[in-house]
Amino acid sequence: MAPAPSSSWRFRVAALVLLVLAGFVGFPSEVQAQQFVPVGPTALNVDLGSPTFSLRVRLFWTAGSTTIPIPDVDIEWTATSHGGAVTPTLYITPTDSNGEATATFTATAAGRVMIAAATPAGTGLVPVTFTIDISQQTQQFVLEPVGPTELDIDLGTPSFTLRVRLRSASNQPISGASISWSAASAGGAVTPATRTSTTNSNGEATATFTATAAGRVTITATAPADLNANPVTFTIDISQQAQQYLLAPVGPTGLDVDLSAPGFTLQVRLSGSDGAPVSGSDIRWEATHGADLVTPATTSSTTGSTGIAAATFTATGVGAIEIVAVAERGSNRVGYRIVVTDSSTPPPP
Predict the structure, then answer these.
(1) Residues 46, 79: contact at Cβ < 8 Å?
(2) Domains of the chain
(3) pTM (two decimals)
């Protein structure tokens, strides 16, 4: 079996036939040189959100003012990257009955691509070059915060909730989308570190966290990757628990005690941040210095309806005693200094 004629050979036969036809029909002038031109613009802007595009060229002869298409000629398309990328990079399509050849490509990376369409070797025609500028996908969805993106959290009230809204570019809420939340420590800590939530009919999703350590935490909310929506980042500054209770001494914090009357009583009052007395709270008392000079060295008592708690001690030796009162409810400490003497012992001569 004889080999199939090449595209270049078919091109030459077509040219000869056209020359004969030109003489037969009596064209007023000779058939001119063949033409190879683009159909449509040679510079295109392509968005990765709509990555498919087609290019077209036309191959024909001219006879006076008449154009004669040249069909069945293979056109070779070659893509060269200048930062961007398309697929395929090599493509061959034949001209149709109109002398036109079309090639379809898909953009895969942003940047510039040059695509050259060439006729078979030996035709002497200059390739047609297309410049394709590929951009990132146009944002079709928006993820936005609902409320502030910077929060100050106190460890005394450690729970907080963040909220985002997912919408289309035309401002329509997107429901049923999974939002991922991820916390990154910059000194502070929250729990959980990661979680997901789903947007409701308003396009909103919430996530609740609990602060566990003072410092800064950033929490990022991310929509599904195929939506190409921007992430939202929240900055959480976590501080130590603000003092909600105040422990104050009732009476002086410095006492002089003689072993002839060794018993003494200390009192404190516990109040809330609004100044109201706090009852039923345990107060722990501890001798932090001179524990061997007093009994008991440690004890506890409970605040009454007026917020006052008392503890009674007995001095057992001469010297200085320091006793600290501490409330269970995260308040300040109250310190006492007791100096014990013995009047029954005469001073040295």
Answers:
(1) no
(2) 7-135 (2.60.40.10), 141-239 (2.60.40.10), 245-341 (2.60.40.10)
(3) 0.43
